Amino acid sequence: MSAEAADPGAPLRRRSRPRIDLRRLGRVALRGPVSRDRLPDAIGHVAEAHRAHHPDADLTVLRRAYVLAESSHRGQMRKSGEPYITHPLAVTLILAELGAETTTLTASLLHDTVEDTEVTLDQVREQFGDEVCYLVDGVTKLEKVDYGAAAEPETFRKMLVATGNDVRVMSIKLADRLHNMRTLGVMRPEKQARIAKVTRDVLIPLAERLGVQALKTELEDLVFAILHPEEYEHTRALIAAAAGPDAPLDTIADNVRGTLRDAGITAEVLIRPRHFVSVHRVRGKRGELRGTDFGRLLVLVTEDADCYAVLGELHTCFTPVISEFKDFIAAPKFNLYQSLHTAVVGPGGAVAEVLIRTHRMHKVAEAGVVALGNPYAQDHAATPQSEPSDERADPTRPGWLSRLLDWQESATDPDTFWTTLRDDLAQDREITVFRTDGGTLGLPAGASCVDAAYAQYGDRAHTSIGARVNGRLATLSTVLSDGDTVQLLLAQDTASGPSPDWLDHARTPTARIAITGWLTDHPDEAKPTPSTMTSVETGGPGPAEPAAPERDAQATASARTRSGPRATGVLVDGPDAPVRLAGCCTPVPPDELTGFTVRGGTVTVHRRECPAVAAMQEIGRAPVGARWAEAEGRESGAGCRVTLVAESFGRPRLLADLTEAIATAEAAIVSATVEPPSEQRVRHTYTLQLPDAAGLPALMRAMREVAGVYDVTRAQHPAPAG
């Protein structure tokens, strides 16, 4: 079956099977009971499709389910005039064509019985077991009498929670919506539009994420026809005009078949027509359509290695369009999709897109999670509602579904849930980032470090102060790319909370709901924004910033500077001259030194790696030898002055905590400056007087241990040459 059938109204079926007349099946369904030794004629097509995928399936349970469904719905009619039983039959046939296993088909036949008839869940459980009961309950709508306007969003919430435990719930819902969309023409135009919009915003993205392309593409075309009838008709005309025996893809397909045959590669080469929405998108992208834009070549092989063999032959014998190459086998999409994508130039310059995959990959590409059968067959607990084991790798419980289930618990308001669900499903691409502990995080494309923090830590992420991305420090606003390694940095102060600015960088509902909730609960305690942080950080002495001692230390330092070479603890070559330590790099023992004579004959001493040294030499200044007077310094116990630069993420009380660490190390602050925050980063520069240079490493370690500080370095600012 093709997931890109050209006719959006055509039911999913094998090409060899004639179109199924649901009206005839409806009449058959009304003929009454049948003998126990054979299946009712009405579900003969379902049985045939089911046995094509599962030759050994026991059809007895399907017979019993059909009998209960038919008798329960007897007398009910659809708005189209057909007996109601034709709807569960059609839904079940769709799933049978996709390869669904027997339990799913049984529940599909019964999916409307509890909602629309006198059958109860207890009866379903008693006759068909817990699994079927769970699936039927999962797709049963909540009553409008009880929920009013919230019935639809709360029904979807209930369905999604059920899908989290058993993905077959959503498989049934998608097939149910497909058949309803096929028969939507009997509804009023305004109701058609409303249902089509919900299908577009919620169910089509869910079909995409579950990999059920066969349902997704037909739903897209049906929605397209309802919401954009003029564009739909124009696209239909373009497709009809392009059809014919001399289509350009036919020639390229023949050439590809010959190439692979000559290479000894067994492969099936098909022309895969694009569905209406796909053609419309290509036309919007390219403007004028080419003859090869109405379809793609599909090459099916047996083994994974054959896929790459086909790719090698095509790229050798044809001119490849390298920009079109994508390897979704080595790196599958988040919805289980695997395939090689490429494009080659055929005769006359025609460009054909080519999909290369194994038959199994093709089955999964068409049917997604439905093709996986029952993922719980070997270790499914007696009660499907129980949480699946974390030890089992369940491909039907991808990261996006887990995230959705997490945030929906916080969205207690139905309107918030409904709006957030649509926004979340609109994120149509997913990335994987790696944690430093070896784990991974699945996030939507465009997610930031804010999103990663809440995905990893939940509410603990309120205390986030920054991150390291691929080993480099980054702000929380940094957008992550697929394959990045991220390490989140949290403050030790558990009472701190997020900034309102974080909402500008949060893409996941989990992060947005958590941040909004904290800000609502703490209106006066939010982290200051960059503008307010500047005033907090630079607004004068804090609790650990005694102004008077600093003035005393500054005066003492000035006196020592004026006292000459002995006060600096530095000896210089040449005539006796005043010596001063450069303020740009503030050297301390055991730094290697060099000096330069400046105006007035004073020798200014720098650390050798100071940028000012190179600048001095470039303008022709001759260096003066300089060294520490070690013995003299030890005898006198002379102190030293040093300038340190602390790089940190902004947070309340940061300046107070830093100055406390400095005071604990018995260093006096000569001067301090705090630059205005930039992208949540703050730069502090301190000139300090230490009683002994030996205490500098311990001081720098103490400053680095202050929460929010990610680096402390010696100053390296170039000094003026004069």
Average of per-residue pLDDT values: 78
Report how far apart the termini are. 82 Å
- Sheet of most strands: 6 strands, mixed
Structural class: alpha+beta
DSSP summary, beta strand count: 21
The share of residues in helices is 40-55%
Give the amount of beta strand, in percent.
15-25%
Query: Which residues form runs of ≥5 with pLDDT under 50?
Result: 1-20, 22-37, 378-396, 527-563, 631-637, 718-722
Q: Give the overall shape, derived from the CA principal axes.
A: elongated
Oligomerization category of the chains in this entry: single chain
Individual helix count: 29
- Rg, Cα atoms, Å: 36 Å
Structure description:
The protein is built from 29 helices and 21 strands. The strands form five sheets. Strands 1, 2, 3, 4, 5 and 6 form a six-stranded mixed beta sheet that branches. Helix 5 (102-109) crosses helix 8 (130-139) and helix 14 crosses helix 16 (276-286). The protein is elongated and about 115 Å long.
